[in-house]
Amino acid sequence: MKPAFVSRKGVVTSEHPFSSIVGLSILEKGGNAIDAAVAVSFMLAVSQPALNGLGGDFMAMIYNEKSGKVEFINGSGWAPRRLTKEIIVEKFNGDMPRYGPLSIVVPGMVMSTYSLWKQYGSMEWKNLLQPAAQVAANGLPVSPRLELTTRNINETFHDHETMNVYAAPRWGRINMQRLANTIQAIGENGPSFFYRDVGQAITDYVNSMGGVFSYDDFTEYLPEWREPLSIEYRGNKIYESPPNSQGITTLLILKEIDRRNAPLQGSSKVKVFTEIYRHAYSIRDSYIGDPRYVDIPINKILDDEVFLSSMKRLHDGDTTNFVVTDAEGNIVSAIQSLYHPFGSRITEPTYQVTLNNRASDFKMSGPNEVGPRKRPLHTLSSIIVEKNGKPTLALGISGGHFRPQQHAMLLTNIIDLGMDIVEAIDAPRFLWDGTEVFAEDGVDAEVRKIRYPGATGVAHAIQFINDEKIGYADIRGDGIALGQY
After folding, report:
1. Distance CA 357, CA 288 (A)
2. Given this model, what pLDDT does residue 336 score?
3. What local confidence, expressed as pLDDT, does residue 158 receive?
4. What is the pLDDT of residue 250?
5. pLDDT tens digits for 75-103?
6. Which of 187, 290, 309, 310 has the fewest Cβ atoms within 10 Å of its own Cβ atom?
7. 152 CB contacts (<8 Å, ≥6 apart)?
8. Cis omega (within 30 of 0) on the bond before 453?
9. pLDDT, mean of residues 186-200
């Protein structure tokens, strides 16, 4: 167990001390939750380079205290306009590559954080990015977790640049001066610098390795403001991320738990929950994709019982999430990612931007079929919960395709079992990978066991109880929760 932070003012919880500290400093300077979220996002891009970065995506759920409205920004990237199914068939026999130049979509993180700030921010943009630029200029200290991740996957790096940047010894420092310069330039010039100058460099570099980017894939990119999805669950309103996010899967799981009156403890819980997961993921794979290209019958999916049996093996992903609230009660529940550790395993050398591998989740048919300018079915999602019209909880967790299971587990811990966020997050977990169930020690079930606390995702949450705001960072990660006195 880590210490929770309790405040009646602002709270920040994230996966690295640097980012929680900078978020708190922005709140202390008079910034709002959106200002703090931007600063935290860029600091995480520096401090957790295996999980996320300027070359990745960003999504956030936002609660606006003044309007009482929950909104959603989708900063997932789209595929190059020259990426087609025929290319994948020709080069990879119809199997989407996991890494490399054809696994990359246009990064959405920079433009979406800017759009969020433009809509609701109160401080100067460049001042929010300056702390991340400063840490990058000083060099990032290599933690044991980062050193282990780099060592485990270094043979899959697709270019010498990625190896040269990240192959630093434990407790050494990663030279990030070029990334510092890039962040500084984005601070001075806005996102146009990234999608113009950096976009051209990414296009040239990735295409030299066999990619198919065009310059206008970057210059024409825009994030989307969307209405979040929501359901009522046992007196609570649960807001989740809409397609192309897989957030609807969480809602399907919760609806089925409620409909079945599923057991919430003991070995029977594992069996029944696994059946529910199988149904929910089958529906996801049959219907969910980029809504600009496929017609998604949201109401039918949420209102009807649909049982489909097709299911492929899930795979984990590396992601980082954070939650911020300010003294006025505004909330940002955000999540950002390169997808797998170090994404595509390609780092553009001039601007030191490591690129995502989100295109690897495209399929060769169905609603998530690969195609020009499409956004892939996306694992990122985050949650805000209301009761009687007021926020009671904001949370997120890393975990890739496991996220809907994790969200449902955390929510049932809190709503059904009456746990607070510390108890709910630290409780032993079980997950279904599409083939088998595995569980941390402490779960009452005859399944494959892993040590506790294990690699079952890193959660961050803020709970609202009366006038108090309680922030917590998962024992499974390196982060901390901090707040104002």
Report:
1. 19
2. 98
3. 81
4. 98
5. 999 999 999 999 999 999 999 999 999 99
6. 309
7. none
8. yes
9. 98
* Tens-place pLDDT, residues 349-377: 999 999 999 999 999 999 999 999 999 99
Does the structure show a pLDDT above 50 at 311? Answer: no
For residues 4-24, one letter each, b for 16 or more C-beta atoms within 10 angstroms of the residue's C-beta and e for the rest, the string is bbebeebbbbbbbebbbbbbb
The size of the chain, in residues, is 485
User: Do 122 and 32 meet the contact criterion of CB atoms below 8 Å apart?
Assistant: yes
Q: Are 229 and 248 in contact (CB under 8 A)?
A: yes
User: What is the rounded average pLDDT of the residues 64-69?
Assistant: 97
Strand pairing partners for 386? Answer: 237, 391
Q: Tell which residue, 367, 404, 407, has the closest CA to residue 285.
A: 367
Query: ∠ CA 204-206-209 to the nearest 5 degrees?
Result: 110
As beta bridge partners, residue 461 has 395, 472
How many Cβ atoms are within 10 Å of 444's Cβ, its own excluded? 13
Phi, psi of 94 (to 5 degrees): 85, 10
Helix (H) or strand (E) holding 248: helix 248-260
Amino acid, single-letter form, for residue 64: N
Identify the three-state secondary structure at position 466: coil
Structure tokens at 17: 């001390």
- Measured torsion, CA atoms of residues 73, 74, 75, 81, in degrees rounded to the nearest 10: -140
Joined together, the tokens standing for residue 456 give: 């079952």
Structure tokens at 267: 């070995």
Cβ–Cβ under 8 Å, residues 183 and 198: no
Q: Say which residue the tokens 């060099």 belong to.
A: 139
Tokens representing residue 54 in the block: 């300027």
Tell which residue, 280, 299, 298, has the closest CA to residue 289: 298
Q: Give the pLDDT score at 450.
A: 97
Write the DSSP assignment of 197-236 as a string of letters.
Answer: IIHHHHHHHHHHTT----HHHHHT---EEEPPEEEEETTE
Spatial contact of 380 and 59, defined as CB atoms under 8 Å apart: yes
Residue whose pair of structure tokens reads 């805000």 in the numeric block: 384
Asked if 165 contacts 174 with a C-beta cutoff of 8 angstroms, the reply is yes
Q: Map out the domains of the chain with their CATH numbers.
A: 5-225+321-361 (no CATH), 227-316+382-472 (1.10.246.130)
**Phi and psi torsions of 335, nearest 5°:** -150, 140
Tokens of 80: 């190059």
Per-residue pLDDT averaged across 142-166, rounded? Answer: 86
Q: State the DSSP code for 378.
A: B
pTM, to two decimals: 0.96
Rounded CA-CA distance 317/296 in Å is 25
Q: Given this model, what pLDDT does residue 307 score?
A: 39
| pLDDT reported for residue 154 | 76
> Residue range 210-214: average pLDDT?
98
Task: Tell me: pLDDT of 470 over 60.
Answer: yes
- Work out the mean pLDDT of the chain and round it to a whole number: 95
